[in-house]
Predict the 3D structure of the following.
Amino acid sequence: MKKQVLIPLLLVLLLLSACAGKGGMPEDGTYLIEATLSGGSGRASVESPTALTVQDGKATATVVWSSPFYEWMQVDGVQYAPVQAEGNATFVIPLTLDADMPVSAQTVAMSEPHVVDYTLRFDSATVKPAE
């Protein structure tokens, strides 16, 4: 009797732990994901949750800054231009899940342009379908 209950219970626990530890890239589609920003002066922020798009297995995040004064972002040596001319600076950049991503951004909010180093982190545990 104990084996009849114990074995299915162990199988369910094993399946749940495998799913919980998956943490991989979601299927192609549009999602929301929590983003955290650190570095810089501490005054800038990014919208969170952030739009996450997966297409052909490649993920991008739409990063919306708290300021309109960012002229470009750089990720892994590649520079990205803003995707809109009005409102807060918005960039579509590649992302890595569950890892600190060093990024740089040039701001013109001060008297002259400054490149500021930041760290972005996208938490795969928070991924949910966009509405």
Remarks:
- Confidence is low (pLDDT under 50) at residues 8-22.
- The beta strands are 29-39, 50-55, 58-64, 70-75, 78-80, 90-94, 101-107, 114-129.
- The helical segments are 2-20.
- The longest helix spans residues 2-20.
